[in-house]
Amino acid sequence: MIQLGRLEIETPDHVVLRYDLAGGGNRGFAALIDFVVATFLVIGMIALWAVLEAVLPRRLFLTTQGLFVLVTLVVAWSYFIVLEWLWEGRTLGKRMFGLRVISADGSPASFTAVLIRNLLRIVDFLPAFYGLGLLAIVLSSRSQRLGDLAAGTFVVRAPRPRIDLLSLRTVASADGPSVEVRGLPGELQRLVREFVARERGLSDADRRRVAASIASALRVRAPDLTGSDDVELIRMVARSLRATGDAAHTSGGSEGGAAPFRR
User: Fold this and answer.
1) What is the DSSP annotation of 1-13?
2) How many CA atoms lie within 13 A of 157 on its CB side?
3) Global confidence as pTM
4) Least buried of 57, 151, 184, 235, by fewest C-beta within 10 Å?
């Protein structure tokens, strides 16, 4: 979903992530910083070439000029590609101005997407400093330059997205079994919801470790479920939270007892 200046993404776990889209101003300043850095890389390559000119035979030096120009361009362009790929969508300029590149599902942009958006940077740069790119950002409802449109990427403000837990619909079916747990603190309810929202992004070891910690607290209030699988127990409690509409109680963070969940 796109609102003016905002991007909303619903994950496969039905959690809504909200991002603030970056405008042309901050992106322009970040690009300026990045081009300064890239220019220094080019200057370093030219200095290296001057050293090679002094030590290489004249004939060899002349025959490798074309190759050196190509390598210099690759090094300058690799600055954008490598950093955005390995640094979660950030270059030095983007980091300074609190920006990063994400894909359409909210995850860091893949190498292919980063490669596409940066190869098209030369088109966005025309006819002068990001002329077409800035025009596309202004006209696009998603503040995307041409490279972003081709790669399916967005540039957003870097702080972690706000997670709308009230929109959570658990992975398990709402018609599945639920469990009655009495006196469940609001903080524990929040942990249950966040675990269900994020469990697919955890490794198996981390999922088991986190689930065991939450489930041990739940079993104090549901001792008859001692033999239940940790993850499934948490999902059953999450279904009950969803069914009984206790989300407002959880978001308030109250530590008092919650209403009993239906079985």
Assistant:
1) -EETTEEEEE-TT
2) 14
3) 0.58
4) 57
